[in-house]
């Protein structure tokens, strides 16, 4: 727009044929191309470029939070999601050009908390008051790229960034990370917990590698829940080798 790159957000409805439970294969070449239905734009003209949008994890699909430059915007999708109303907002305060890079909505605490990343800092916010509830200054030596909450263990949060590290935090005590991974040799762009087995952490980096880490010691099942190779019987061992 006017020779400037703008980053915006919108809500779309997927075709009914593609909803879960549908028996049709989405990659069936004979099926007609489906179009998405535009429901509404999240109007951010007053707030700047969108960094990310997040659905309320356990909600009814009516609440979305977007991060635009230094603003946190809570949207209420009304009238069958065809209209987005800005219900509350908060702004980062401080010196310089403060901008969010990413955020994550916590599935715990009745979905009343989100975590955001800006520069080297990770912050926690209460969505009811839009006030800050914790702050991890210099969480990483360089820009924080991504965050994810442990789906089964409240207070636990993973972060990654341009210092090539993945760090795990207990938000009740943010002075030191619980654990740090240094497997990547370049910026770490994404970190995700496995939703069923929270000891499994997937990270992607611009060192061109995707790494799956098994973090049993800080998981909700500290004794491990997955079958170890040692536990396989000899016969199964042999079968594995043949494979």
From TrEMBL:
PROSITE patterns: WD_REPEATS_1, WD_REPEATS_2, WD_REPEATS_REGION. Gene3D superfamilies: YVTN repeat-like/Quinoprotein amine dehydrogenase. One of its GO terms (biological process) is protein ubiquitination. InterPro entries: Beta-prop_EIPR1-like, EIPR1, WD40/YVTN_repeat-like_dom_sf, WD40_repeat_CS, WD40_repeat_dom_sf, WD40_rpt. Residues 31-212 form the EIPR1-like beta-propeller domain. Keywords: Repeat, WD repeat. It holds the Pfam family Beta-prop_EIPR1. Belongs to the WD repeat EIPR1 family. This is Protein TSSC1. It comes from Phoenicopterus ruber ruber.
């Amino acid at each position: 727009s006017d020779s400037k790159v703008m980053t915006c957000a919108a809500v779309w409805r997927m075709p009914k044929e593609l909803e879960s439970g549908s028996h049709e294969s989405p990659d069936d070449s004979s099926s007609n191309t489906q179009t998405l239905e535009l429901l509404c734009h999240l109007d951010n003209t007053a707030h700047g470029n969108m960094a990310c949008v997040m659905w309320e994890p356990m909600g009814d699909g009516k609440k979305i939070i977007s991060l635009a430059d230094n603003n946190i915007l809570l949207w209420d999708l009304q009238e069958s999601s065809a209209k987005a109303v800005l219900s509350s907002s908060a702004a980062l305060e401080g010196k310089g050009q403060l901008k969010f890079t990413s955020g994550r909505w916590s599935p715990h605490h009745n979905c009343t908390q989100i975590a955001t990343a800006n520069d080297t800092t990770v912050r926690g916010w209460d969505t009811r008051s839009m006030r800050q509830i914790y702050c991890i200054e210099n969480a990483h030596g360089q820009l924080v790229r991504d965050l994810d909450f442990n789906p089964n263990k409240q207070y636990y949060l993973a972060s990654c960034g341009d210092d090539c590290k993945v760090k795990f935090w207990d938000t009740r005590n943010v002075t030191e990370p619980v654990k740090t991974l240094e497997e990547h040799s370049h910026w770490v762009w994404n970190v995700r917990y496995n939703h069923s087995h929270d000891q499994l952490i997937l990270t992607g980096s611009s060192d061109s590698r995707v790494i799956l880490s098994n973090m049993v010691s800080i998981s909700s099942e500290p004794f491990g829940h997955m079958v170890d190779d040692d536990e396989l019987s000899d016969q199964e061992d042999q079968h594995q080798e043949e494979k």
